[in-house]
Design a protein that fits this description.
By secondary structure, this protein is mainly α. It has a domain at 2-227. Helices cover 73% and strands 0% of the residues. The protein has 16 helices and no strands. It has helices at 2-12, 20-34, 40-49, 53-70, 76-92, 98-119, 122-135, 140-158, 170-182, 184-201, 208-225, 236-244, 257-260, 263-276, 280-294, 304-322. Helix 6 crosses helix 8. The N and C termini lie far apart (63 Å). The mean pLDDT is 89.
């Protein structure tokens, strides 16, 4: 511990206070650390005992490397305990640096995704229940942590052409992605929409905490509405083309029909935009959600009658907005 903390302090020290040789030696210490086999107990010890922020970050990074590298050697029980430990650590340590927390929640996302290949999303469902309780607690810090966990989880399932980075074949990742977007992605979206509905009802000027929470919620909603819902039959070479488009048109599967044909969804996002239009950052994300809802197409709009009904509902909200 002393050696690691000393190396961390050297790396973080101003250039004029350490020599090149000292910095090189410190770098070698952490290169050796990252090559540690079965590093999970060591990482837990570092996270529990050190007060050095850089060492906390290295421990979180080593956890990520270890999970990807040694996933097949972890038993189901060990991986579940490790995932639960990381979530508990993130929730209970309010003062850890933001970048350490974000690295740890990324580890959680990777673990849940890898596990879902075997358990079809069973642990993911348990995690989402825990996260929903966090966000519903009323504590702003817990809400922000919960949103970070959801965002990290979605990111792991959203990326497709880079799936080998976490040790999955493209085909395996794609099946996990389709299973996620047909089940828990809808659960996440409905949960976030309900929270956004509560925010819209808040009268008067929003305080800083509420604005920060709303930015997180809007980010999750926007990620859902810009999601690449792509057919299983689409060739891999075309997949990369879709992934490069940051705002693909909203083309969900038929499981989403009831969600997007609910007129309250469109009404909510128009109300939300009106509520935050004076804030450039919030307004930008809210407006992008409206653009994505305008692009809805595919299996959800099954015939001309349904398309006209959706378009009518959307235009009524748009004209109402423009008339103010």
């Amino acid at each position: 511990m002393e050696q690691l903390e000393k190396a961390a302090q050297i790396l973080m020290a101003p250039p004029e206070l350490v020599t090149t040789d000292q910095r090189h030696e410190a770098e070698q210490v952490f290169l050796q650390l990252r090559n540690t086999k079965n590093p999970f107990n060591l990482c837990r010890q570092l996270l529990e005992t050190t007060q050095v922020d850089y060492l906390l970050f290295e421990a979180a990074t080593l956890l990520r490397v270890g999970v990807i590298r040694e996933w097949r050697d972890l038993s189901k029980e060990d991986s579940l305990q490790l995932r639960q430990y990381i979530v508990h650590y993130v929730v209970s340590r309010r003062t850890i640096p933001h970048y350490v927390r974000e690295t740890l929640v990324q580890v959680v996302g990777i673990m849940v995704k890898r596990g879902s290949v075997e358990d079809q999303g069973e642990d993911r469902g348990r995690l989402l229940t825990e996260v929903e309780q966090l966000i519903s607690s009323g504590d702003n810090t817990m809400r922000m942590i919960g949103c970070s966990i959801i965002s990290a989880l979605m990111q792991e399932y959203a990326v497709t052409v880079k799936s080998t980075d976490v040790g999955l074949t493209w085909e395996t990742h794609f099946k996990a992605k389709k299973q996620f977007e047909g089940t828990d992605l809808r659960r996440i979206f409905h949960f976030i929409v309900n929270l956004l509905g509560e925010v819209v009802k808040v009268e008067g000027k929003m305080n800083e905490e509420l604005s920060s929470l709303l930015l997180k919620l809007l980010g999750i909603a926007e990620t859902t509405l810009t999601w690449s819902f792509i057919s299983l039959h689409l060739p891999k070479r075309l997949m990369s083309v879709f992934e490069q488009d940051q705002n693909p048109s909203l083309r969900p599967g038929q499981q989403w029909r009831e969600t997007f044909l609910d007129p309250l969804i469109v009404q909510l996002f128009f109300k939300l935009y009106w509520r935050v239009r004076g804030d450039w950052e919030l307004g930008h994300h809210a407006l992008n959600c409206l653009v994505q809802l305008a692009s809805l197409n595919g299996a959800v709009l099954i015939n001309r009658q349904v398309r006209i009904k959706y378009l009518t509902q959307y235009l009524q909200c748009l004209f109402s907005l423009l008339s103010r």
